[in-house]
Amino acid sequence: MEILRGLTRSARLTLCSLYLFAAIFIFFQWFRLQPQANFLYNNYPSNLQSPFSNKIVFYEPHCVHYDVISPNKVEFERITQALHVSADILDERIIEQVSNWNAPVSLTVVLRNIHQYLCTVKFLTLIREKHPIIATYLRAHILLPASSDQDCSWISEMAPGFEGEERCLPYTSTIEERAAYPANVARNIARLFSTTRFVVITDYEHLFNEGFEERVRKIASVHFTRNPKSLLVYRIFEIDDTVNEIPKDKFELHDMMQEGKAVVFHARYYKGAHEIPNLEEWLNKTTSDGLGIFARDVNYNRATWEPQFVSLSDIPLHDETFPFQIRDNTVLRWELCRAGYTLDILDDVFMVHRGIKTRNIVNDTKKIQIYNRKKYKMTLTKKTVNGYEALKEILGTTSGRIFIFFSGSHVDGKSWCPDCVRAEPVVDKVTSEADVKNLTATFVTCYVGLRDYWKDQKCPFRTEDGFKVSCIPTVIEWAKNRRIIDAEVSDEKTLKEFLLNQ
Asked: Where is 427: in which H helix or E strand?
């Protein structure tokens, strides 16, 4: 008060205005952060009980020990990288991943059995002690099976005091254990216990180009204020195992691609899942719109596309009912599409993964998919394509039994081919009947093009091995020497017997 008495009236008004402004600013920050601070408490799924009692909770049918280790500080205006890994794979690679990200990371470690608990706690504790980057940024949680009576208290009784190995002993899991891996539960746990405004959901060993988080964080702060229901999509690539240093920018990446040392992620394993249009234009672009966006409002027009993105942290959680390796990650994209989220492609930033995966690489993916599909009743999948190239793409990404119905393309609402006009309603009726719908197969309707194209004897549908279609309508079983043609396709009994017979 003595200080105020010594000031002029004008100075006193100025000082009071500054105090008032500071108070308003502090209140605004509290009001803005409060929803996020309460996010964990207000958005728990119903199967998460007793939140924050003693850092061990029951998350049906699992126990979760959250914040086994946690960062020195919480920075709300950052992007958390949320990821997961099984305990038998967890190793020093997590140090590289956190160092590369250089921002908050929330990691869920999934245990195959309770014997991996103490060694996992010990490993996480030690890397936090030895590596300042881990102490600064890594928040880690353990997901493990609950006891039959849904009791998680036994974990507290084991918890460190604590005699455990510095790393878990080698463990060879069975195909049943690997197929039961709860990937979406682990993803959700990592997100639920993150503490930042933005999130990117990744996998183990995903590495980003230099300055990714800092650059995208600045874009996100502006972008999501304008459009909270949007996703900032980034491109992802694989690099050859012989590459020591990951590319710092897209120009180094471009050089690697020209040398055959980098490809679009899974381009040689599952083409189309991670391809984004206009790659060459993106690689060669040297100017920016100032907002860091390469393309806006890109259509989500392929169910197999699994765009990787940065978003606000309050987007829907992953559907935990999807089995591992059967669209368990893609399902979130479907949900966001239905919810009306838009896709904007980022400029100049990207992710890489070491190792170029091909179909020839021996791995467990197919075994896990086969095992998990047996647990679910499959139905006939229907797809429609236009033209030869589109059909080849479908065949390259579809497994199991495949039937192809060849018909003339539509002009003014119906096929130019009269026989096809008669066949199409029969095909629709038969493939909608219960016994046919229960087939574990894919039924593709392929429009072969307009009349002149089809009549050309060099038309690839006529000449290419595997097709050799001489007339339409025709139905073939792909990769097998079976087909019906012309009037046979329009006969319900003949068509149904063809589909049901092996």
From this structure: helix 418-430
Contact 272, 304 (CB under 8 A): yes
Nearby residues of 431 by Cβ (< 8 Å), 6 or more positions away: 380, 382, 437, 443, 499
What are the start and end residues of each CATH 3.40.30.10 domain in the chain? Answer: 378-500
CA 313 to chain centre: 15
Q: Which two tokens stand for residue 442?
A: 């894919």
Task: Tell me the one-letter amino acid at 28.
Answer: F
For residue 249, give the nearest of 103, 350, 381, 364 by alpha carbon: 350
Which residue blocks in 85-151 are alpha helix, DSSP H?
Answer: 93-101, 117-130, 132-137
Write out the chain's pLDDT in tens, 502 residues: 444 455 566 666 665 666 565 555 444 444 443 444 334 433 444 444 443 346 888 888 899 999 999 999 899 999 999 999 999 999 999 999 999 999 999 999 999 888 899 899 999 999 999 999 999 999 999 999 876 666 787 777 665 555 556 678 888 888 998 999 999 999 999 999 999 999 999 999 999 999 999 999 999 999 999 999 999 999 999 999 999 899 999 999 999 999 999 999 988 877 778 999 999 999 998 766 668 999 999 999 888 899 999 999 999 999 998 899 888 999 999 999 999 999 999 999 999 999 988 766 656 788 888 888 777 766 789 999 999 999 998 898 887 889 999 999 999 889 999 999 999 999 999 999 988 988 889 999 999 999 999 999 999 999 998 899 999 999 999 988 899 999 999 999 999 999 998 6
Pick the CATH number of 378-500 from 3.40.30.10, 3.40.50.2300, 1.10.238.10, 3.40.50.1400: 3.40.30.10
Say which residue the tokens 């930042």 belong to: 196
The letter for the amino acid at 348 is: D
Q: How many CB atoms lie within 10 A of CB 315?
A: 19
Q: Check if the beta carbon of residue 350 is closer than 8 Å to that of residue 235.
A: yes
Amino acid (1-letter code) at residue 188:
N
The answer to whether 417 is a known catalytic residue is yes
Label residues 78-87 b or e (16+ Cβ within 10 Å = b).
bbbbbbbbbb
Question: Which of these, 85, 62, 234, lies nearest to 155 by C-alpha position?
Answer: 62
The angle formed by the CA atoms of residues 44, 45 and 47, to the nearest 5 degrees, is: 115
Q: 63, 152, 168, 420: which one is catalytic?
A: 420
Is 420 part of the annotated catalytic residue set? Answer: yes
| Total H helices, total E strands in the chain | 20, 20
CB 407 within 8 A of CB 448: yes
Sequence-separated (6 or more) residues with CB below 8 Å from residue 460: 388, 467
**Which is catalytic among the residues 63, 152, 337, 417?**
417
